[in-house]
Amino acid sequence: MIEFGEWLCTGVLKKVPHRHFVFSIPKMLRRYFLYDRKLLTKLSRCGWETLKEFYQFVIDEDDAVPGAAVAIQSFGDFLGFNPHCHILVTDGCFYGEGRFRVAPAFQARDIETVFRGKVFKMLLAEGKINEGIISMLKSWRHSGFNVFAGERIYPGDEKAMENLARYIIRASFSQERMTYMRDESKVVYQSKDGKKKQTFDVLEWLAAMCSHIPNRGEQMVRYYGYYSNVSRGKRKKENRDNAIPNIIEDSNTSPAQRKAWARLIQKIYETDPLCCPKCCGTMKIIAWVEQPEIIQKILKHVGLWEVKSRPPPKTHSPPGELQVDCTG
Fold first, then answer.
1. How far is the C-alpha of 172 from the C-alpha of 1, rounded, in Å?
2. 315 found inside a domain
3. Per residue in 59-106, pLDDT tens?
4. For the whole model, what pTM was predicted?
């Protein structure tokens, strides 16, 4: 795992932002992948094509292409068969001559919808499911498909990249969490958080382990796009694989984006937020300030910081002595 992490970070990944995705499928569809392991490769292809289409859609360049390393895993916490894909992908696209553009913000739910459609289309073409099953899964409130998108990992965070590279090829079980009870022919396995335990018969345990062993020649890590073997080999042949990409930040602050949010504010409040109140010229964004203490300092300096303090509670005199008339 350590060797793979070092090799991936030094020999494949470029000094650009990356993001970690996890693509999962519902339990109802997992049995098809258990008895036909060739579908795992097609599942990784569905995940890659989903991300490629998304990044090429948000990066408006003719020859834009992302790069991805896809690791296929088939195990859950207690060795249950749970095929899913861990994808380490560039958070943007390479294009032109050594250029890279960072992708804008996105919603993982939109990516999940595209991924679900591709998996349905693939299983339908393979003859594993029919239109009735697809209609049923689409009618469920929670279809079982899930796409996890991690935080953006920047080029300088080499430790995080190596740890993630090790994580996506981790073993299916941990020997430290396994206890073999020889006299009873049982195996007790503990969950990752240490809160649950599950007892297996020895043969049942061996069968669960064997379901996660790849077939001979089966590749569990695949490389696509800019990181594919063909692309890397071509760049090495042309002696340009070690070139550092010229990174361009995402288009969140592009003129089109600024015009869009300014138009919405003007429509709601009937005032142009980009019109300078002094010279009536058009203002432009030069920086984003997000630190609360800096924002407070700036607003206090220009006299715009107003803090509404709660008035002190009213004081009440203590109640007088209670007079009790005991006569009569």
1. 13
2. no
3. 888 899 999 999 999 988 778 889 999 999 999 999 988 899 999 888
4. 0.71
